[in-house]
Amino acid sequence: MHNDIGSIVLTEEQIQAACERLGKEITKDYEGKFPLCVGILKGSVLFMGDLIKHIDTHVEMEFMDVSSYHGGTESTGEVKILKDLGVSVENRDVIIIEDILETGTTLNAIKDLLAYRKAKSIEIVTLLDKPSKRKVDIEAKYVGEKIPDDFVVGYGLDYQEKYRNLPYIGLLKEEVYTK
Ligand code: IMP
Ligand code: MG
Q1: Which of 77, 84, 133, 165, CA to CA, is 20 to 30 A from 68?
Q2: Distance set, CA 21 to CA 9, 25, 123 (Å)
Q3: Pairing mode, strands 142-146 and 121-129
């Protein structure tokens, strides 16, 4: 598996440092609250596990799995819920946890849905941000690292469901795509 990686974008140490920094910020902002942390499956699982260890206040963990509807080439911005939350978000401070924010269509739709369900507040924490790919007006309050517009794998992020278990984030060698 490691042999398929051409270069490393974020090392394990850089990822852990980002988790620590973001965890401290969230701790400060949510002091005395009981935020509902919503991890978006499956990419956010590793990040969520490391991040919440650095949040020094009570949190509740939930997960959601969604898939985007694609009408032709443009994403419609609608999402199909494959796995819904197990609790109500009404009057809750929600923190959506994502692996990567790219076009923003998925997160925008999730945010709209949680607002419609009357969440008290909704913020986004993403490990990676590709601002150059954005199609809708959405930003994460908490960002681990901004990265250029390259396809990355590892630490939750997959290529054809593989590489999620890499402890770092990297670029695949060109030959992997043509295999
Ligand atoms: P978007 O922001 O709605 O375009 O969707 C972001 C989703 O696309 C993420 O949750 C990932 O599942 C996937 N994705 C975007 N960029 C990458 C990448 O570089 N590697 C792996 N998955 C990616
Ligand atoms: Mg994803």
Answers
A1: 165
A2: 18, 6, 16
A3: parallel
Task: Kindly list the catalytic residues.
Answer: 102
Nearest alpha carbon to residue 51 among 89, 79, 17, 78: 17
Q: Relative to the CA of 98, which ligand 1 atom is closest?
A: 10
Of the candidates 5, 24, 2, the residue with the CA atom closest to the CA atom of residue 125: 24
Per-residue confidence in pLDDT tens, the chain, 179 aa: 999 999 999 999 999 999 999 999 999 999 999 999 999 999 999 999 999 999 999 999 999 999 876 544 444 556 789 999 999 999 999 999 999 999 998 999 999 999 999 999 999 999 999 999 999 999 999 999 999 999 999 999 999 999 999 999 999 999 999 87
pTM of the model: 0.94
C-alpha dist (Å) from residue 171 to 18, 44, 132, 150? 19, 18, 18, 8
Which ligand 1 atom minimizes the distance to the CA of 75? Answer: 3
